[in-house]
Inverse folding.
């Protein structure tokens, strides 16, 4: 799993090298990353089939015992993958919040980043929608739900910032009718919840389509309707 670069908008899974020869040359930390890369790649298969440790080991060209030297269980593998997704997403959210002063544009950019992250990482999208976690330990689904709650809180904070600037926007509108202020009844919590529901819905549609429907399709126009 490659680290996020400062200006990246999404992480792209690198095709893992397979075979026991390559696996033997990897250091312990690299082997863990290689296992997670391979797991994520296997989740990209259009058919939703439960991934077993036997199938994962065969894909890697190692024994199941070799997998368990790095992860005590398949649940731990998924937990590590969720942790990587979480760190990647919130690293990018923090970058966006730092670079963009406008709250509405912050929320819009975060939404587009999440949709593009999904498009570039179809296997990880199956984790974000919890489809890959069916039949796995319930703590994994809880972990994803907690991550999404954090995303919603971040979006809410962006829109609260936008609301704080509403008076300035109103003054600007008085001098420049082309400037569109936020509605008087603008509710950051409601908008953030709607925005997250839209994003998650796009993820689900992407997965159900066998990764054929781009999650960012028509997103620019739709986000304007949601956010203003």
């Amino acid at each position: 799993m490659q680290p996020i670069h400062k200006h990246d908008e999404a992480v792209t899974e690198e095709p893992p090298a397979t075979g026991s020869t390559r696996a033997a040359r990897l250091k312990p930390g690299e082997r863990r990353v290689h296992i997670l890369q391979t797991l994520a790649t296997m989740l990209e298969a259009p058919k939703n089939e439960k991934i077993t440790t036997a199938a994962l080991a065969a894909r890697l060209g190692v024994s199941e015992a070799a997998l368990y030297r790095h992860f005590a269980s398949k649940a731990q593998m998924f937990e590590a993958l969720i942790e990587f997704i979480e760190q990647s997403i919130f690293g990018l959210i923090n970058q966006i919040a730092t670079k963009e002063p406008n709250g509405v544009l912050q929320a819009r950019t975060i939404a587009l980043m999440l949709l593009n992250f999904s498009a570039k990482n179809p296997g990880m999208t199956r984790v974000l929608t919890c489809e890959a976690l069916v039949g796995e330990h319930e703590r994994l689904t809880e972990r994803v739900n907690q991550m999404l709650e954090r995303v919603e809180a971040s979006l809410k904070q962006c829109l609260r910032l936008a609301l704080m600037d509403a008076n300035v926007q109103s003054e600007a509108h008085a001098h420049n009718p082309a400037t569109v202020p936020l509605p008087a009844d603008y509710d950051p919590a409601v908008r953030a919840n709607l925005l997250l529901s839209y994003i998650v819905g796009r993820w689900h549609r992407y997965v159900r389509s066998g990764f054929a429907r781009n999650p960012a399709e028509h997103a620019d126009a739709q986000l304007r309707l949601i956010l203003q």
